[in-house]
Amino acid sequence: MNHLDGFSQKEKNLFKEIFKHHDLNHNKKGIKVCDQILESHHNHGETMAMKALLLHSMGRKEEGRQLAREAEQYACKTCHIVPHVNGLIARNDKDYVRAVACYKAASLIEKTNQQVARDLSMMQAMSRDFDAFLDTRRRMLTLRTRDRQNWYGVAVGQYLTGAFGDAANTIDQLIQAEAQTKAEITPVELSHLRMFEVVCNMKAHGPEAALASLDQHRGDILDQYQATRLRLQLSCDAGAPDMVSFEQFMQLNPDDIEAHEMVVKALAESPADLASRYDDLIARYPRSHVTRFIPALYGPEGSVMTVVTALVKKSIAKRSPSLYRELARLYAVRPHVRPLVRQYAVDQLETDAPDETKVWLHVYLHHHAMADADAPTALSHAEAALGLARELFERAKEYPSVGDNDDDGLVDADVAEPHLVLYELLGTALKHNGAIREAAETLEAARRMDPNDRFMNTVAYHAWARLGDFRAADETLRAFIRDEPDICVVELQNQHFKVTTARSRTRAGELLLALRDYRDVTRMFAAMREDEFDFHHFALRKHALTEYVQLVEYETSLGAHKYARGAAMGFADIAMAIINGAEIDTTAAKAYVAEYEEIYGRQLKNESVPDANREREPDPSFLGFLDMSPAAQLAEVQTVLRAVAHTDQTQAMEAIVELRMFKPMVALKLVKRLIAAGDAVSSFMAEIVYHVAMEVLAEPPAGLSATEQRLMAMAKMQFAKVEKDVVGTAAATQLTVAECLTVAPLTAGEQRWDLLCQVSAAGTVQQCLRALELLHVAGLGGREREFVEAVRSRYPRFLV
């Protein structure tokens, strides 16, 4: 049976036009054609499905979903269009599980359809089901062996499933087969393939096999920089560094410190031999900083301070504010040098060195004190550096240089105003001493000196946001954007802006707006993962296989990013407080919505607004969160937590969410994982979850079925078995300040207060600010003054 049975030739042509309109994004024209066909064939499932897809693409998503469900009832059993369309709709809705199921149904109907198989493989890659991805790609290769993209797909699937040797063999077989058929492979394509083959051999058989493969195909690789760098790395990993490749690479980039360290560690030469070899390199590459730095790292002990002193003098002469960061690698290798360099800088301040030199010595000592968490000392050095710089500037204005170009014989002094970096250091030092307002005012003054400096603009924005002056922060940001700051930050995916704002709003008690900001950050990461979709087909089409697998590995690890985890936990902490019945002040949130309604001149929920403009409107969902049922709220928290990499903290929070959703057996598995971790903090978290479980299981909700009641009783017995492994841990564990902040979001009431008191007694200013956030979320805002006074005993300027 054909899906166009009963159609006239004209109607068949009209049906084909629908696909053209969809491909060209002419949705309205496509819908008109669909309506023409449906006038004669009211229940034609394939036409209904295509109309549903066009409606969904126009933004009428619910209408499209409903029509797609109706189309399933009238679908032709021998045509793949309806399940394929349902898969496309599910994919656009980011429901990858349903999309995979629909694509599989479509591929069972038409097993030879390459487009369906390609879409299925992309969804399997997006959902990280690499075994199924490889099976689908193998089936595509069987159907069309002349298509190189199918070979590439199989090789990538083998790589992602860990069969690196098979991936290398697949690429080699492809190249040999194309050579036999005299098919043309462009030099760029061949270069990409050979580099991917070398990487696969390295992972499968080690550096020796990869080195042999690289030498065999070196002539096919166009990127000689990458090939030389890779050959040097492989030879060092094999224990016999190729000095010819090292010399070639030095001509390309003598300042690659990792390349230098690879060779030094592989050679294991004596310090004297190393110093002699690097004397030659310094003579040949006099402008290279790294060739002078390596002898300080690995050269003779007696000459270290001589080398370091020369480096310090050179950096100071260049007015380099990053001197401490450059020397940090040296301090990690030779810790005893650190106090010596500091003492050298202090001694230089006591000499008659020029004031300009002393400015940058103070900058170095500021960074040194910041690394030691000595905020008062860092502040004194920052103030001294800026004070000296101002004196130099004033002195230069009083005694301008003499020239012969002006009639009066005077020209402007060749001295600039104090470097903006000095203001930034002062603002940072003030922040770490708790003087948040002074820091913001200092950084704002620096920003106004050079309004075109994007870095200072960003720093000033963070300072105002940290202070809680969001209007000043927005005005700062408007210097570089055209639209409203709140919208542009989301569109440009600037997570750091949103994280700073969310934390400040939490400290101010504006929990709903903080909830919105945290949710925006999680959506940014979700959008980054979604952006991967278009790269699957593009990478295979452009034969960029190495870059493809690197991107997949990066996207897989995206949930481990500190902003992703921090936003997820911040969202979960506030959301759980709302779910547990905390009183939430909605005044600031309603004022925010009212302000943006006025800006855009229309109501947020106006259904006549086109979907294309909807994403540019303020997101009112943070207000809607209050109207959700507890089950829906918990599901939202669960979705956010599952999108990030699992840590002990996120697993403990997820266990609490599972308990609130009355899924105790899932929570029990998570508790057992925490116990198995074996460290004190994990055990502490396990005990917190255990007590929540006992509280939930003691009074099961009414209305449970008999099966659910038995499950709850069984879970209570299972939790009782782990009691001896967790109870008492909290009392016996002495947590560090960082560990207190990690555990606190899982607690409530007095237990959270006790943990935060430890932070106020020993934490840094940044840690105390974080503790203030947790204080407000737990409904302990009334004790904020007590907490602040405790912090001021150590930081007198804290939040003054």
Automatic annotation (TrEMBL):
Top-level lineage group: Eukaryota
Which UniProt keywords are listed?
Answer: Repeat, TPR repeat
Q: Name one GO cellular component term.
A: cytoplasm
**TPR repeats: which residues?**
420-453
Q: Do you know which Pfam families this protein is assigned to?
A: NatA_aux_su (PF12569)
As given in the record, the signal peptide range reads none
| Name of the protein described by the UniProt record | N-terminal acetyltransferase A, auxiliary subunit
